[in-house]
């Protein structure tokens, strides 16, 4: 269903009803741009920390506008064994409520606008008929201003539009406006003596309208009702109506009610987000971090500076979120799904071993056909996001004993994916954990390098040419991360550069420590998670490091490890090998809201998978999980099934890695997570 300013009021009740009765909701947004500065590669640096990624998105993406919001509600019909869907496609635009309301400024990115235009996006519906909105602070401010005006009018110190300096004497009229005001007075006096009831004065300036209000309020204190009327072309004129005291009070009451209704209309689309939030339903999205950030920023409150504050705000607005891109990139799906972009994911989950969900569009709603792709229409994208979630969730049911064909959005089977948002291109921190500490990879193989602005990527490759394959991740014009293939070469590189004049090399740990010290100097202390057993890892935002002058005549040097010091046969095959954890046990835990009162221990991602129970990964590299010899495969005493992960070894570019065997002995089951029976 397409929703614009014209039909929003009539549709709002239908939207709220659909949200309340739904089992889960799927959302998607279309924006006027993505980044106002860095390109997408720099905006999504592969070695960002969660705090750095959040800070960059907040700084470079929030001045764009979310101007199309897709919502699709899914309700399971037990009798028909199919989902009943209600898709909505909202066009959103921040039209000012009045002259005192926020006049929002936003930016557009030409590539984004060009792309949406190529997909048939109708910008006229946004700018001409977009639904207005106010965030909570703006709504409170406008309601207070409205209440203040009413109080002034009740006390006789103001008029419906302007406050008169004095109601006891005539208003001061500048000489150049006296003829104009005298003509108005003449017309009003004629109105009082003839049979006409209404007089529409000619459109005039705001200052002239103020003079008219002040003069008529002084000269004709009774028998008239005066108000400003605005035409469709935004022209304003004054309407004078003959009334008795009772009629005047009635009209003033009607005007106050109309102002309240207009203010409610100005809140606009934010009421939809309030309804979603109030429902507490599971909200599903695909690669949804930007969608969540924009939704909170536009319709609730400006985003906080601190990542922990953002997490808390997000959990207040959306208590349960699920990201299908993260789900598709996690065991047991990652081995079967080769492309996690939304369009490709929708195609892959139609094929075995998945099954296409049975859906039916509710009466009165537009029916989408996936054979005729309408990608980048927010309502359609929300719809296929929901389909992908259903297919993957139902596939998890095949691991249960006995297998179940239908898995609800409330099932514990999907709980491990709750409140974790996919982080693009960060290999060793694949998600932002909204309800617990984020992963803390050690990154012992990473160096922080500062250098002259003139340097290019080729200069860095030349500098580290003796260290084999490297990966460069630029931070800004004068700094970058360089990932080495072997950890034992890191200190050699640092020592070799100790006396260099044009560049500086630090370990990743030194870089993080320096950022923490800089933050503490600014008076920002790390926040804790309280007394619930969680400590928040302290991340700092990326900032430009000190630059070093490029010495004239100094050649760019290549640094080499000293002879006999290069040894070591433990290359870093990926970013999953080593972690530091905030608790003393050496393992990272994530909370699961288990109604039975216990929390499952779930480790951070290893090279075999992103969400995993069991022991910490082998620091020497990846190894396949040992088989559980104490129980038959696929079954246990509690009626649950551990998902055994296929051994997956991912080497860095140009390198191969031999599988390493762990010594045999009693070890806990290394499954992805335990899958309880459906509620």
UniProtKB/TrEMBL annotation:
List the catalytic activities from the record.
Answer: Exonucleolytic cleavage of poly(A) to 5'-AMP
> Required co-factor?
a divalent metal cation
Q: Name one GO molecular function term.
A: poly(A)-specific ribonuclease activity
Major location category of this protein = cytoplasm
Q: Where is the composition biased (Polar residues)?
A: 152-167
The broad enzyme category this protein falls into is hydrolase
Basic and acidic residues compositional bias: what residue ranges? 142-151, 590-606
**Pfam families with a match to the protein in the record:** CAF1, RNA_bind
Q: Which GO terms describe its biological process?
A: nuclear-transcribed mRNA poly(A) tail shortening; priRNA 3'-end processing; siRNA 3'-end processing
> What EC number(s) are associated with this protein in UniProt?
3.1.13.4
Residue ranges occupied by any R3H domain in the UniProt entry: 178-244
Which domain of life, per UniProt?
Eukaryota
Question: Where, per UniProt, does this protein localize?
Answer: Cytoplasm; Nucleus
* Residues that span the membrane, as ranges: none
For this record, the Gene Ontology CC terms, alphabetical, are:
cytoplasm; nucleus
Task: List UniProt keywords, sorted A-Z.
Answer: Cytoplasm, Exonuclease, Hydrolase, Metal-binding, Nuclease, Nucleus, RNA-binding
Q: Where is the composition biased (Basic residues)?
A: 650-662
Q: Give the span(s) annotated as Disordered.
A: 142-174, 559-679
Task: Please report which protein family the annotation says this sequence is part of.
Answer: Belongs to the CAF1 family.
Q: What is this protein called?
A: Poly(A)-specific ribonuclease PARN
């Amino acid at each position: 269903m397409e929703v614009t300013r014209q039909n929003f009021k009539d549709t709002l009740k239908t939207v709220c009803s659909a949200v309340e009765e739904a089992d889960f909701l799927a959302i998607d947004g279309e924006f006027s741009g993505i980044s106002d500065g860095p390109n997408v590669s720099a905006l999504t640096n592969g070695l960002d920390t969660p705090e750095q990624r959040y800070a960059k998105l907040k700084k470079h993406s929030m001045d764009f506008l979310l101007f199309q919001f897709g919502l699709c509600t899914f309700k399971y019909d037990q009798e028909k064994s199919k989902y009943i869907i209600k898709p909505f496609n909202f066009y959103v635009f921040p039209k000012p409520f009045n002259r005192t309301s926020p006049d929002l400024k936003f930016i557009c990115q030409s590539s984004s606008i060009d792309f949406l235009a190529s997909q048939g996006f109708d910008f006229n519906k946004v700018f001409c008929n977009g639904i207005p909105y106010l965030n909570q602070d703006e709504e409170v401010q406008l309601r207070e201003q409205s209440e203040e005006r009413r109080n002034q009018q009740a006390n006789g110190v103001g008029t419906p539009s302007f406050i008169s300096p004095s109601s006891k004497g005539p208003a001061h009229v500048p000489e150049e406006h006296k003829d104009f005001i005298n003509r108005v007075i003449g017309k009003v006096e004629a109105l009082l003596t003839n049979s006409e009831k209404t007089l529409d004065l000619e459109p005039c300036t705001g200052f002239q309208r103020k003079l008219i209000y002040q003069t008529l309020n002084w000269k004709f204190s009774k028998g008239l009702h005066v108000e400003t009327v605005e035409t469709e072309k935004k022209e304003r004129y004054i309407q004078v109506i003959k009334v008795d005291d009772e009629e005047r009070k009635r009209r003033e009451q009607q005007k106050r009610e109309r102002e309240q209704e207009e203010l409610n209309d100005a809140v606009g689309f934010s009421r939809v987000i309030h309804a979603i939030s109030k429902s507490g339903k599971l909200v599903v999205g695909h690669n949804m971090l930007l969608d969540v950030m924009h939704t909170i920023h536009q319709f609730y409150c400006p985003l906080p500076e601190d990542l922990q504050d953002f997490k808390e705000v997000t959990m207040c607005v959306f208590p349960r979120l699920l990201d299908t891109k993260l789900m598709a990139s996690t065991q047991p799906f990652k081995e079967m799904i080769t492309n996690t972009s939304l369009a490709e994911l929708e195609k892959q989950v139609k094929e075995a071993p998945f099954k296409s969900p049975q859906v039916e569009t509710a009466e009165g709603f537009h029916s989408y056909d996936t054979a005729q792709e309408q990608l980048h229409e927010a309502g359609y994208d929300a719809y296929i996001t929901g389909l992908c979630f259903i297919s993957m969730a139902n596939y998890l049911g095949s691991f249960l004993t006995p297998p179940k064909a239908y898995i609800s959005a409330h099932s514990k089977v999907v709980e491990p994916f709750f409140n974790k948002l996919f982080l693009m291109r960060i290999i060793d921190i694949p998600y932002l954990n909204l309800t617990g500490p984020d992963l803390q990879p050690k990154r012992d193989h990473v160096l922080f390098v500062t250098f002259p602005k003139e340097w290019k990527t080729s200069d860095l490759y030349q500098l580290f040419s003796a260290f084999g394959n490297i990966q460069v991740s630029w931070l800004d014009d004068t700094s970058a991360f360089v990932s080495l293939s072997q950890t034992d070469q890191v200190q050699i590189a640092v020592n070799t550069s100790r006396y260099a004049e044009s560049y500086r090399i630090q370990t990743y740990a030194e870089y993080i420590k320096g950022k923490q010290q800089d933050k503490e100097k600014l008076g920002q202390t790390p926040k804790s998670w309280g007394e619930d057993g969680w400590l928040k890892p302290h991340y700092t935002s990326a900032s430009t490091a000190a630059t070093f002058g490029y010495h004239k005549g100094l050649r760019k040097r290549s640094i080499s490890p000293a002879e006999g010091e290069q040894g070591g046969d433990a290359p870093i095959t990926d970013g999953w090998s080593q972690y530091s954890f905030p608790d003393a046990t050496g393992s990272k835990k994530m909370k699961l809201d288990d109604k039975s009162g216990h929390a499952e221990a779930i480790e951070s991602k290893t090279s075999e998978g992103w969400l995993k129970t069991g022991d910490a990964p082998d620091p020497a590299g990846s190894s396949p999980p040992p088989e559980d010899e104490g129980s038959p495969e696929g079954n246990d005493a509690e009626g649950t099934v551990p998902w055994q992960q296929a051994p997956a070894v991912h080497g860095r570019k140009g390198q191969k890695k031999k599988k390493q065997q762990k010594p045999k002995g009693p070890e806990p089951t290394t499954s992805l997570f335990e899958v309880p029976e459906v509620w």
